[in-house]
Amino acid sequence: MEGDTTMFQGEKPSGRSNTFKTARRDMLTSLISSRNKRFIDMASTILQNAWILNFKLWPAEYSGNEDFGDSAVQALAQALEKTLMEAEVNPTLVEDEWTVLKSYIYKS
What residue ranges do the domains of the chain occupy? Predict the structure, then answer.
């Protein structure tokens, strides 16, 4: 019978429904716990400003939006200053590189 939600491939499923519900709850609890451990500070500067990596959030036109993302890049450069320095990247040049990148992408 098509559309019958009590049948699966002609057979009526049987068993303890609580087992599935418990397993589903345990799995979701474990996933949420893992996510929380991985992203301890969901309000961190890095996560708040990572939106600039999503091209769908970029303005359609460069003209009139030349300062787009500048404050986010500045905040990221400050938050990641130690990491950038360890990678031998001058954090003060990141903003200039961001401007060049935007210009290049919009001209392509």
Answer: 45-107
